[in-house]
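Figure 3 (text version): structure tokens given as input.
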């Protein structure tokens, strides 16, 4: 055999062990790092977004607010921790002030839940909303001019939280002492650093913030996926056990098509396992390993590409109706390479080094080519499937026709469900612009993995390894009676099966030339 299950398992097992045992560089994820990040001008304020994550309420009682900062891990507590936060203003802005001045510039750290977003800022006389308090707003709202406008939350008068940081004298830097803000209510939390002082234009910031949930450092939207990938790993392991038991039992009669199915199962198993390890490492340390993330994204892109090529090849009759794809091989491979590159780029943008619980604009831009290629795959698959069904009907191959009808029904159901789910996903995101339903967002990602696994199970059932699969696959039966005898031999392995298959081989020799000519003509037309 050119391609067996054991070498594939050995290769991926070795790769997995090397990945997990090696020292891997990490990208800060739940640990948000600011390396001289600039403030940008928004309305009458200068602001810097510090992050946005879904955080569950603390399971334990937070320590007193006056308690000194310490670096111990607070099991069961949720918080946002500030470490080594330093603000830097320009030398020209610092030189405007005397060495004897006390407070020469104000920066405010603002933390609020998405539900309280309207409690930040105000609008004089119903005009454009302002973040900072102006002279008119000071009269209307009772706020302090030159500071961020804050209204108490309806559920907790202590929220939103604002922490003041002052520049002293003519210093160029101001420091926020290391502190923690404990989260006692589940929600989507946003952090902003804001200055209302026009003299602080060009402000930059350094330091880190660390966001923690009760069970670890995974952002709230990602946390349920860790348990999901455990379940999917066991599901793929069970499918692998069933498939490989048949694979080893009938290894002498394995089709090339079944080798491809084996590759998809192995890729799926290692993808789900690697996702779990990646999320577990992230949850325990707060840092996201770029090495594991890049590898799992690449394996996922390969798995999706091979899966689509497998379905396309099956739809063309490869391994069952025709021995090769003929002149279409180059076109199929070119489409596969293009899809792999588009999928790899999209998922690297979405997952590698991801920090916040909010999808970026770059992902929305990269989704388009990926979606167009998927649409092209679907069109080509159903066009090829229709031609294959016509050929089988013309040749009266009832057993193969029955298999392909079941396959086409499963494929049609998958496409219909996919389109419906895409519509739901668009609705979900359009009606939740501030990610307030973040606790259920993980289902959007999980659904596609479940759907792909379900379709793979159907393909495994229809093309499971059997005693007569190799000889039966390429037989060309012209009568219903012979086809039924072949199906009985394939399914039950009866003593009459050998006689039936010998008859089929004789017919195959007589029909082979004409069938190959028909396939060649079809390839030229496509």
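Below: residues designed for each position.
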């Amino acid at each position: 055999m050119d391609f067996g299950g054991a070498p594939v398992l050995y290769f991926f097992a070795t790769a997995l062990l090397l990945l997990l045992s090696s020292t891997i560089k990490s990208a800060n994820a739940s640990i948000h790092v600011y390396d001289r990040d600039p403030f940008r001008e928004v309305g009458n304020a200068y602001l810097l977004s510090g992050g946005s994550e879904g955080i569950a309420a603390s399971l334990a009682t937070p320590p007193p607010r006056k308690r000194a900062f310490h670096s111990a891990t607070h099991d069961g507590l949720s918080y946002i921790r500030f470490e080594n936060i330093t603000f830097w203003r320009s030398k020209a802005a610092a030189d405007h002030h005397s060495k004897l001045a006390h407070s020469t510039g104000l920066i405010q750290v603002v933390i609020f839940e998405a539900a309280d977003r309207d409690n930040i800022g105000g609008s004089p006389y119903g005009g454009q909303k302002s973040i900072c308090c102006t002279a008119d707003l000071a009269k209307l709202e009772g706020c302090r001019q030159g500071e961020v406008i804050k209204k108490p939350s309806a559920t907790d008068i202590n929220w939103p939280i604002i922490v003041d940081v002052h520049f002293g004298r003519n210093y160029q830097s101001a420091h926020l002492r290391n502190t923690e803000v404990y989260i006692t209510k589940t929600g989507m939390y946003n952090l902003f650093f804001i200055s209302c002082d026009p003299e602080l234009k060009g402000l930059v910031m350094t330091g880190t913030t660390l966001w923690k949930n009760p069970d670890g450092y995974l952002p709230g939207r990602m946390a349920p996926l860790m348990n999901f990938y455990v379940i999917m790993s066991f599901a793929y392991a069970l499918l692998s056990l069933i498939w490989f038991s048949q694979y080893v039992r009938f290894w002498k009669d394995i089709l090339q098509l079944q080798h491809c199915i084996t590759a998809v199962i192995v890729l799926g198993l290692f993808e789900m396992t690697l996702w779990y390890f990646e999320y577990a490492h992230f949850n325990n340390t707060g840092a996201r390993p770029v090495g594991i993330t890049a590898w799992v994204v690449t394996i996922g892109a390969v798995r999706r590409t091979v899966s689509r090529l497998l379905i396309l090849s099956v739809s063309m009759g490869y391994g069952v109706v025709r021995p090769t794809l003929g002149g279409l091989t180059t076109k199929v491979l070119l489409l596969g390479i293009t899809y792999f590159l588009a999928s790899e780029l999209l998922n690297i943008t979405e997952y590698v080094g991801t920090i916040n619980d909010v999808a970026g604009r770059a992902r929305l831009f990269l989704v388009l080519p990926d979606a167009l290629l998927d649409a092209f795959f679907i069109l080509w698959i159903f066009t090829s499937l229709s031609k294959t069904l016509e050929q089988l009907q013309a040749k009266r191959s009832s057993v193969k026709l029955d298999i392909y009808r079941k396959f086409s029904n499963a494929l049609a159901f998958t496409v219909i469900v996919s389109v419906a789910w895409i519509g739901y996903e668009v609705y979900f995101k359009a009606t939740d612009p501030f990610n307030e339903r973040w606790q259920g967002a993980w289902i959007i990602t999980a659904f596609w993995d479940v759907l792909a696994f379900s379709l793979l199970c159907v393909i495994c059932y229809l093309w499971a390894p059997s005693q007569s699969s190799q000889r039966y696959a390429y037989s060309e039966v012209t009568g219903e009676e012979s086809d039924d005898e072949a199906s009985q031999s394939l399914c039950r392995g009866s003593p009459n099966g050998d006689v039936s298959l010998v008859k089929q081989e004789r017919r195959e020799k007589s029909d082979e030339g004409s069938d190959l000519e028909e396939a060649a003509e079809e390839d030229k037309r496509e």
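Residues 1-29, 66-74, 476-516 have pLDDT under 50 and may be disordered.
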